[in-house]
Specification:
The complex is a heterodimer of chains A (229) and B (258). Chain A has 229 residues and is of the alpha/beta class. Chain A has 9 helices and 8 strands. Chain A has a 6-stranded mixed beta sheet, sandwiched between helices. A two-stranded antiparallel sheet of chain A has the order 2-3. In chain B, 86% of the residues lie in helices and 0% in strands. With 258 residues, chain B is mainly alpha-helical. Chain B contains 9 helices and no strands. The model of chain B has no long low-confidence stretch (mean pLDDT 93). The chains are: A alpha/beta (229), B mainly alpha (258).
Chain lengths: 229, 258
């Protein structure tokens, strides 16, 4: 597959379950090493770098995991302060201010003392998003950001993705099944099928596409082998 | 290859993985700054919170062993040898083996369960995504805390076991206290205590390496956490008992060669 994302661009990757969307994000983040192929970021080839050599790039790339992946033994404040402390920030006042600012952006001001177990699914995603962007990455990766959320909360996450992109000018790759989300946040939508970008275009082009594979996915229509009964 | 062949391959894979994690832990220990807050937290959980169970084990092992030895030795009029027998057995075998088996159950299970839960909820990946090496952040503090705590806990169990053994033999069975203590001091060598502490340290390395390896390589799903935890305790306990034999032979050859 070949996928290029320009600075500030929001690309949504859609595709059937198990087609490799999340695996693609993990390769971009260096959480998996590919058997073949290469990943470039800002002109640098990342594939094959050691774990330590990856870290400077990981600071420029944020990732929202499907299950939020908040550290459950740490409070919301500690979760958000974690990446800043790892960068060497020790001033409590700076940490408090930056955490408060990030929580305000995701509409969770005052939630510093809460533990992840006390948060709803949507709140966890928002805290995880605040943690991912607290270092102002150049690229944000979203793995199924709206999965498991009710439509209203999903809409708030979509708006947040748009808002963050506009606010910090960062590029985004959003992996999703949710076509409402895909149309809302994507400048460009790529349909991944069989390890390849099968179709690529603006949301309008995807909606007008008459290819049966793309059309069935976009319209949520089961056909052929997928029809049960 | 068959079922047996598959079992051998998996066993080799696990042993290799444990050794690689151990090497990576040592490398990370010297390469990265030590996270003192994490180390204290683990030391508290392993060292302080295990004291009651370790002291109870030491006390009752010493008591039972002193009673059993008295039952046998009194037939031959060897009551004065009860002290050194209890003391040497506690130092060389009972103390380190029983304390570390308890630690494999209590601490090894907790390590495996905690790390595997973090693994399946993507927290380990989140650490990497934030530029933190998981071995350095998760494994090193646990490994170090157990390696420091196990010999100290073993020493506590030895003191308690020998003390309670004295109480049982002298106060309950009426063995002469002066003889008992004099012979205990006379025949218990520093090398016996050294054996206890060396064994405890090596057992701690085995428990921490196996438990952390299992936790960090947990299969997906909640069932994986239970399976991983059970495997960690069983594998660590078996590895501990098997290595105990080789350590016994080796330490005796090294320390008592003259």
């Amino acid at each position: 597959m070949n996928l290029k994302v320009a600075g500030g661009e929001k690309v949504v990757v859609i595709g059937r379950s198990g087609c490799g969307k999340s695996v693609m994000l993990r390769h971009i983040m260096g959480l998996l090493q590919p058997d073949g192929g290469e990943v470039f970021f800002e002109g640098t080839k990342l594939t094959g770098l050691s774990e330590e050599a990856w870290n400077p790039y990981r600071r420029k790339i944020g990732m929202l995991f499907q299950g939020a992946a908040l550290f459950d033994s740490l409070s919301v404040f500690e979760n958000l302060a974690f990446p800043l402390r790892e960068e060497g920030e020790k001033n409590d006042r700076v940490l408090r201010d930056k955490v408060a600012e990030s929580l305000k952006i995701v509409s969770l001001a005052g939630a510093e003392a809460k533990m992840p177990a006390e948060l709803s699914g949507g709140m966890k995603k928002r805290v995880a998003l605040a943690r991912a962007v607290i270092r102002r990455p150049d690229l944000m990766l979203y793995d199924e950001p709206t999965t498991g959320l009710d439509p209203v909360v999903a809409d708030s996450i979509n708006r947040l993705i748009l808002h963050l992109g506009k606010m910090f000018g960062m590029a985004s790759i959003v992996v999703t099944h949710d076509m409402v989300s895909a149309r809302m946040v994507g400048d460009r939508i790529a349909y991944l099928h069989d390890g390849k970008i099968y179709f690529e275009g603006t949301p309008e082009q995807v909606d007008r596409c008459e290819d049966p594979l793309v059309r069935d996915f976009v319209r949520g229509h089961a056909s052929g082998m997928d029809v049960i009964g | 290859m068959g079922k047996f062949g598959g079992l051998i391959v998996r066993a080799c894979e696990t042993v290799g993985g444990v050794f690689l994690l151990f090497a990576d832990t040592l490398r990370s220990l010297f390469r990265y700054r030590l996270r003192w807050d994490q180390l204290w937290e683990q030391m508290y959980f392993i060292g302080i919170r295990s004291q009651v169970v370790v002291l109870t084990t030491g006390a009752f092992t010493g008591a039972v062993f002193a009673a059993q030895v008295w039952f046998q030795f009194k037939r031959f009029g060897m009551e004065s040898a009860i002290g050194p027998t209890v003391s040497i057995a506690m130092c060389r075998e009972l103390g380190p083996v029983l304390v570390c088996l308890l630690l494999a159950g209590r601490v090894g299970a907790a390590m495996a369960a905690e790390l595997s839960s973090m693994k399946i909820t993507e927290q380990v990946d989140a650490l990497r995504a934030l530029g933190v090496y998981p071995t350095e952040y998760l494994v090193v503090p646990r490994f170090l805390a157990l390696v420091i705590s196990a010999p100290v806990l073993t020493a506590l169990a030895l003191v308690t076991g020998i003390g309670v053994g004295y109480f049982v033999a002298v106060q309950i069975f009426g063995v002469d206290g002066a003889y008992y203590w004099d012979n205990t001091v006379k025949y218990t060598d520093r090398k016996d205590v050294a054996i206890a502490l060396i064994k405890a340290t090596i057992f701690a390395i085995i428990i921490a390496s196996i438990s952390c390896y299992k936790g960090m390589n947990c299969p997906p799903g909640t069932a994986g956490v239970g399976k991983t935890t059970t495997e960690a305790v069983v594998n660590a306990s078996l590895a501990l008992l098997i290595s105990n034999f080789f350590l016994t032979v080796l330490l005796n050859a090294v320390l008592y060669s003259n």
